[in-house]
Each structure stands twice: as C-alpha cells, then as structure tokens.
C-alpha cells in the first residue's frame, strides 16, 4: 500500500510538472520570438534583473496562494504557496533557457550576464504560464463527459463520422496556429533565427515542436484527455494526430510567410524550409491549443 501511494505521488508530481511546462509554453512562446526582449535582457543590469525576479516571485506567489499549478487538497497555506512559487519560477527559467538555446540566442560564447538577463526577462511569461496552467487549463469534469457520451451514443453514430471528427481537428489546428503565429510571421525575428540556425538545430526544432504538441494535448491534463483519446477520426490516434497536426501547422506557417511577403515563389526551397520550421514551433503550439478547445 505504501509503495502504491508513493508511486501515485510521484506520478502526480510528474503530471503537475508536465502541465506546468505546457502552460509555460502556451503563454511564453510568443515573447520568445521578440528581439527587443533579447536586447533588453542582454543589456539589463544585475539590479534590474533582481527586481524582475522579485516582481515575478510576488505575482506568482499570489497566484499559487489562491490556486497553485499543483492540484492540492489543502490550499491557503503560505509554505506550500512559497514552495510552488520557487518551483514554478524554476520551471519557467528552464523553459526560457531551453528555448533561447534551441533558437541559438544563447550559445557557449554568450556571457553569463547576458544569458542570465535574457533567461530572466524571457522567463516572465513562461513562469506566469506555469502558475496559471491549473487555473485556466485544468481538466474538465470527466464524469459528465462520459455520461454525455453514453446518452448521445445513438445520435453520434450517424451525426459525427470519422471524416467530420478529422476535419474538426484540422480546422481547430489551423485556427490555433494562425492565432498564435500570425503576429510573429511578419516580423524580422523569423528571418534572423532562420539564418542563425543550422540543419541539426532545425531537426531539434522539429522534435521539440512534436513533443510539446503531444504533451499539451495528450499528457498535460488539459481538457478531458480520456475523451480525447477515444475520439474517432481518420488520424485520431495520439502519434498520428500529432504528426498530421504538425504538418498542417507547417503548411499554415508557409502560407502566412508568403502572405506577408517574407517568402516568395522565387526563393529556394531551403529558405522556405528554414523559415517554415522556425515559425512552425509557435504555430504548432497554437494548433495544439486549438485542438484543446474542441
């Protein structure tokens, strides 16, 4: 019994961390593509960095005091809120550092002061996303969804076909990708990042996009995941759905870049590939958020 409880507690801890990470990416990914924040962080003095950290701690502490990113039975405890705040900030900083490293805005040649400034300033929305994940993106009532499924069993067989379910997912992916990436597509950051990232890093960018998308929809505990896994459709399996949604997000990214004249038909295919993959990360995260809404 003790081993089972210990196993369940570790599983719950991992689920909480995964949910926090996914919430951080949902909130923080748009700002990671903003060069002004890179410059502000790289030029920030240690005093300003310390003030930013203190400001983050106060805000995240208040969020965790009311309803932390963990699903706890006991709330309104200062010690637990403080522990959750430190962990949320750590998760936010790790996510920020990983993204800056992945996009080659932080390299071994970058000074410690510049790296720290970039991580802290870019980590603000990531940390807020971690703290807000459980409040705004928590799982729905699974009992209600199960009973509704049984009640509507007779109708759903001829009202919701596999094709309809697939089109619903693809449509939600496109809408979510546009909502998140449309403001990023016309900026110079995409071109700057595409020029700085080498082919191996582009592969890492693809892998990261797929992993984050899968985690948001199927592992983080947002919405009703059991119902999500039971959904019918042509590609309605976790791996196939994640892959197809990623390809759709890349297509949406290419169209947005072409719309804003960041890519033209005369550009080489390698340039199309690099720019599309760079914009594909926020588009994929947006597409995953869109699928959560249906």
Which descriptors apply to this entry?
0% strand; 294 residues; 13 helices; mainly alpha
Structural class: mainly alpha
Helix content: over 70%
Mean pLDDT reading: 82
Radius of gyration: 20 Å
Low-confidence stretches: 140-160
Strand percentage, roughly?
A: under 5%
| Strand elements, count | 0
Number of helices: 13
Largest sheet: none
How widely separated are the two ends? 39 Å
Q: Report the order of strands and helices.
A: HHHHHHHHHHHHH
- Coarse shape: globular
Fold and architecture overview:
- The structure is a single chain.
- This protein is mainly α and 294 residues long.
- The chain contains 13 helices and no strands.
- The chain starts with a helix and ends with a helix.
- Mean pLDDT is 82; it is low at 140-160.
